Amino acid sequence: MTADKPKGPASYFPSIEAKYGHPMQHWFDQIAPRLDQPHMQIVGFLKDEHGMGHGHANAIVAHALAARKGG
């Protein structure tokens, strides 16, 4: 029996960790003070300040905002 693969934004996490060399908690900590900003503004921060690709940045922000809302 195989474990269920992550779906949605979490499906990007293994490749984000491999590409940028940090665990996911590092990225959640980076954006934590910005979670009151609009989604795309936080995405822009990850892209501009950390050189992250749009898809990876968007996945991190989407996951963090959903978790914050309890979803």
Summarize the structure in short.
The chain is mostly helical. It has helices spanning 13-20, 24-31, 39-50, 54-68. The relative contact order is 0.19.
Properties at a glance:
mainly alpha; 61% helix; 71 residues
Number of helices: 4
Total number of strands: 0
Q: What is the straight-line distance between the termini?
A: 27 Å
- Provide the number of structural domains: 1
Helix/strand order = HHHH
**Low-pLDDT segments, ≥5 res:** none
Q: State the major sheet.
A: none
Strand content: under 5%
Overall geometric form: globular
Helical content class: 55-70%
The whole-angstrom Rg is: 12 Å
Instruction: Report the structural category.
Output: mainly alpha
Task: Provide the residue-averaged pLDDT.
Answer: 92
